[in-house]
Amino acid sequence: MSLEVDGNTIATNANGYLEELSDWSEKVAEAIAAKEGITLTQRHWDLIRYLRDEYVNNGENQPNTRTIVKAMQQLWSDKSVDAKTVYDLFPLDPSKQGGRIAGLPESRRKGGY
């Protein structure tokens, strides 16, 4: 499978994850999100950047939903952020759908919590 962005063909696997981490850009993220019916807001970008930072700068870590919730509570200075908050952003699972839009490899983890 593939994705067309600005005249370039970006290779993806059968589940829509990028084949190459280096192919990711914000335009690619917007194209993946649009394909999934998501309009990216600042909170989406915060979560996407967090996931990319964890993967790229923290030993390819792919945080689960609980860890994402804690990180977003801290980033947004809002203790009321919960799993529902991040699932509202990425309904198919913040760690997996968010990771796909962030250009990360497909996670083999089972759950969100």
Task: Give a topology summary.
Layout: E1 2-5, E2 8-11, H1 26-35, H2 42-57, H3 65-75, H4 83-89, H5 96-101
Antiparallel strand pairs: 1-2
Proportion in β-strands:
5-15%
Structural class: mainly alpha
Classify the helix fraction into a percent range.
40-55%
Total helix count? 5
Rg for CA atoms = 13 Å
Q: What count of domains describes the coordinates?
A: 1
Order of helices and strands: EEHHHHH
Q: Return the average pLDDT rounded to an integer.
A: 94
Silhouette: globular
The CATH topology is given as Arc Repressor Mutant, subunit A
Distance between the termini: 30 Å
Number of strands: 2
How do the strands of the widest beta sheet line up side by side?
A: 1-2
Family: Belongs to the dsrC/tusE family.
Protein name: Sulfurtransferase
GO molecular function, one term: sulfur carrier activity
GO biological process, one term: tRNA wobble position uridine thiolation
Q: Would you kindly provide a brief summary of this structure?
A:
The protein has 113 residues and is mainly α.
Report on this structure.
By secondary structure, the protein is mainly α. It has a single domain (2-101), classed as Arc Repressor Mutant, subunit A, CATH 1.10.10.370. It has helices spanning 26-35, 42-57, 65-75, 83-89, 96-101; strands at residues 2-5, 8-11. A two-stranded antiparallel sheet has the order 1-2. A hairpin with a 2-residue loop joins strand 1 (2-5) and strand 2. Helix 2 packs across helix 3 (65-75). The protein is globular. The mean pLDDT is 94.
